[in-house]
Amino acid sequence: MLLTTGNGLFIFTWDPGSDHGRLTVPGATYPVWTGSLLPLFWLTPAGGSPQAVKATVDPGRSQVHARNAELDLGLGEFGRGCLRISWAEDFFRFDSIAITWANPTPPAISALYFGSSLLTTEERAAAPSLEQPFWPDWRAEGFSTPSAKTNPMQSFFRSWDFGHAVLPLGSFGPAMGTPYAAAFPRPTYAACLGGENGWLCAGAGAVPDGALSFRVRARSATLERLYREEYWGAPAGETRRWEAPLCLTWDRVAWNAVRNYFRLLPDGAPKSLVHQKSFWGTWGNFRLGQFDLRAAIDFAADTAEPDVLCVDDPWESGKGSCRPHPGKLPQCQADIAHAHARGLGVGIWMPTGWLADYAAEGLTEDDLLLSRDGVPIRSNWAIDPRETDQRFYCLDPSSAAARLFLRERTHRVIREYQPTLLKVDFAYGLPGPDACMPRDPHYRGEQLAWNYQRLIAAAAHELNPDITILGYSLQPLWDDVQDECALDDLGDAGMHEAAGHGHWSVWAALAGERGLALMGSSGYLWAADDEVMLNTAVLGAPGMNLSSQEIDGATSPRRARRRGLFRWFRRTTQWSPLWLDSEPGTLRAEPCIRNWGRLETIGGEAVLTALALREPADALRHEPALRGLRWQGRWAVLAQGSGSIFTAPVTALIPFAAGAISLARARRPGSVHAVFVSGACAYHDWDWQDGCLRITVEESFLHHPLLGFLIRDAL
Q1: Contact between 647 and 670 (Cβ < 8 Å)
Q2: Across the chain, what does the average pLDDT equal?
Q3: Which of 162, 227, 159 is nearest to 196 (CA)?
Q4: pLDDT at res. 180
Q5: Every domain range in the chain assigned CATH 2.70.98
Q6: Alpha-carbon dihedral 530, 535, 537, 540, rounded to 10 degrees
Q7: Which of 515, 527, 608, 655 is the most buried (most CB within 10 A)?
Q8: CB of 523 within 8 A of CB of 487?
Q9: In this structure, which topology does domain 273-554 adopt according to CATH?
Q10: Which run of H or of E encompasses 379?
Q11: Three-state DSSP class for 258?
C-alpha cells in the first residue's frame, strides 16, 4: 500500500505498512524530507510501567480511495483505532485519529509523537540516553521555525545546529525549555523541515490538547504533544479522539510552505476594517518608571495622532486586578477621560490567566492551577523560580468561578474606561504539563491559553462587538480570539532592532492573505525607528512602545515621519507581499527586508498599494509591478483610498532620506503639497514628463518637521 501525491515539482509518498514517508523533487540527488508518520504513544497502563507503543496499519482492514483513506490502526494489547487521512497535490493531512482502548481504564498518555520510531537493539546501544526506547526519525537538510531564536533573530538552522533542543510551537515557551521569547509570532503550531530542494511544513490542524513542541535530537526531529497524564489522570471514556492532529504541506520556499499550511486551516472572514488600529502604548514610558499618564497622552496626541492610546503593563494595583495602581496612576480615571477628550481611543492591557491576589477577588485555591502536591502554582514571564518579585497565581478555567471572574473583570474594565481595544498578554508565559494541568481535560495543553483568550474576547464582544482584541499570534486558529496581531516591542531583538523588525515583517506578511489586522509596533530605539516605519508602511497600522523621553525635540524629523505614517497608513486588512529583492528566508540567508510592497485586490485585479523603498537595485529596473519606478534615497509610498500608488486620486510619499523618486501616474497631478506638523503648503520641486511625476528632496528640506508629500489628481 503506497500512497502518492504531488504537483509536478514535488512527489510525496507514504507507505503505511512500513510507515516510511518521503518528499522528493524529481532529479534531485537527495530527498527534501524522510520519516515516519504513524503516531507513537509513550504511555503508562493502569498499575504498569511506561511503554512506547507505535501504531501499525492493517492493510487488509483499511480502505483507500482516490483522495482519502480510512486506515485500521493497531496499538497491540492497548486497543485498536481508525486513522482518517486526505490529500491533494500540495498537502497530506491526518483528518482524525480515534482509538478505542482495550481496557476499561484508559492508559495515561505521557506524550504522543509524530515522527518517532522505536530503536533497534543496535540503535539503542548508540543512544545517549536509555530513558526512552524511541528516537525522532524526521530527517532533512535543515529546520525552520519562525523566530525560534532572538538577539539576533533566527528562523533557519542546519539540522546539526541545535544538538538536543526543544522548540515549543505553542504557548509554553519558557516552560518547555527555550529562553523567554517575545510573544510574536506565537503560537504557530508548526515547524518546517527541508533545505535547498524545498520545504515541508508540519503542523496541527486544530488547537492541540497537549503542549506542542518540535523536538530535535542530534540531526533528527519530531513533533511532540506532551500530556503527562501519569500525573494528572487520563480523560474518561473508552474512545480517545484527535481532530486534524497533523497537516503536511510543501513548497520550494519555507514561507510558502507555511502559507500553504495556513490555507488548510478553517477559513474565517477577513477582519473588519475597524480593527486596523494604530497604537501608542505607554510601555515605552512605564518600563522606565515614567508614570505620568497625562503627559504620555498629550505626547501621543501631539506626536502621532494614533487611533488608540494603550494603558500598558504595569498599570495595575496587582497583576490581573485590572484596577489602577494608586501610586503610579493616582488619576487614572481622569487621565483616561482626558485621552477621550483629545480624540484618542483607549486600550487597556490585561494578562490572560495570571492573578497576584486571588483571595481579594473572592476566589479560592479551587479556582487555581495546582502542582502535583496540591499547592497553587506560581508563574512569571521567564518561568524562573528565582524571580521572587514576579510570581503570580494562574487561574484554572475548569472552574466556573474563574471563568466568571474573567468575564466580570472584562465587563468592569469596559464599563469603567470605554476602551476600544484590549491588549491581552502573556498567554505565552504559562507553566506547562510538567508543573500543572487544568482539572477539566477540555482545557489542557494548548487549549489553556486559547481558552483564556476566548473567554476574555467573548466577554468583551458581549458589551462592544467592535472592540479590538490585540494579540500576537500568526496562527489562523487564533483568529476567533484576536482581531489585530501586534509585532510586539522587539525587546528580545536587543540592539538588532532594525534587522529584527524586518525579520518579523516577513513572517507577519502571512497574516495579510486572510485579512487579519496587523500592527507594526516598534522597538525601544528611536535610532532604529526609520527602518520600522518603512516596514510598517507595507504591513498595515503603525504602533509604538518608544519612550517620549528619548527623542531629540518636538521638531524631530523622525517624529514628523511617524506622524505622517500614522495619518496615511493603509486601513485595509487583506493583502499579499510583493517581495522584490527582499528575502523570505533560506538555510543560507535569514528573512531580510529590503525593497518590498503590498498587493491588494481591487476590482478583481492585484494592485500595488504600498511600497517600502530602500537602496535601488539594478535587478528591479525591469520589475513589471513597479512600472518603471526609479528612485534614490529611501521612501514609503502609500495609496490613499481605493486604487494603486499609480492610479489613486491621492498618493502619500514619505521621504526618509534626501533623494528623488520618479513615479508613473495615470494623469498629471493637480497639486503636490508638502505637509508639515504646522500645516501644508504647495511644493514646487517636481516635474511631469512622459507620464511620470518626479519629486526631488534636498537634505536641508528634511531638517524641517516634514510628514511627507501628498500628490492629488486634478479635480
Answers
A1: no
A2: 95
A3: 159
A4: 56
A5: 3-264
A6: -130
A7: 655
A8: no
A9: TIM Barrel (3.20.20)
A10: strand 378-379
A11: helix
Give the span between the Cα atoms of 557 and 695, in whole angstroms.
Answer: 19
Distances (CA, A) of 52 to 34, 131, 274, 600, 601: 21, 11, 51, 50, 51
Q: Identify the pLDDT of residue 514.
A: 92
> What residues have CB less than 8 Å from 355, skipping those under 6 apart?
319, 320, 321, 361, 363, 392, 393, 394, 395
Q: Taking a C-beta distance cutoff of 8 angstroms, is the pair 18, 80 a contact? A: no
Query: Distance of alpha carbon 295 from its chain centroid, rounded?
Result: 32
How far, in whole angstroms, is CA 575 from its chain's centroid?
17
Alpha carbons 169 and 3: distance in angstroms, whole number = 28
217 CB neighbour count, 10 Å cutoff: 19
Q: Are 635 and 611 spatial neighbours (Cβ–Cβ below 8 Å)?
A: yes
One DSSP character per residue, 658-683 reads: SEEEEEE-SS-EEEEEEEETTEEEE-
Which amino acid is present at 13?
Answer: T
d(CA 687, CA 511): 38
Beta strand pairing status for 198-203 and 11-15?
Answer: unpaired
Q: Which three cell numbers stand for residue 197?
A: 530542494
- Percent helix, strand and coil across the chain, each to the nearest 5: 20, 35, 45
Closest of 268, 641, 634, 662 to residue 476, by C-alpha? 268
The 3-state DSSP class for residue 643 equals coil
In this prediction, the residues of the chain whose per-residue pLDDT falls under 50 are 554
Q: Write down the residue that cell numbers 519562525 correspond to.
A: 146
Distance between CA atoms of residues 558 and 424, nearest Å? 29
Looking at 557-691, which runs of residues are DSSP E strands? 576-578, 596-602, 605-613, 630-632, 635-640, 650-655, 659-664, 669-676, 679-682, 686-689
Nearest to residue 497, comparing CAs of 512, 509, 487? 487
Q: Tell me the Cα Rg of the chain.
A: 27
pLDDT at 558: 87
What is the pTM for the complete model shown?
0.96
pLDDT for residue 527 = 87
Distance CA 521, CA 278 (A): 9
- CA 334 to chain centroid, in Å, comes to 35
CATH architecture group of domain 3-264 = Distorted Sandwich (2.70)
| Range list for CATH 3.20.20.80 in the chain | 273-554
Secondary structure letter of residue 46 according to DSSP: T
Q: How far apart are CA 635 and CA 565, in angstroms?
A: 12
- 10 Å CB burial of residue 144 (0-12, 13-18, 19+) is buried
Reported as a single tens digit per residue, the pLDDT across 650-707 is: 999 999 999 999 999 988 999 999 999 889 999 999 999 999 999 999 998 888 889 9
CB 630 within 8 A of CB 656: no
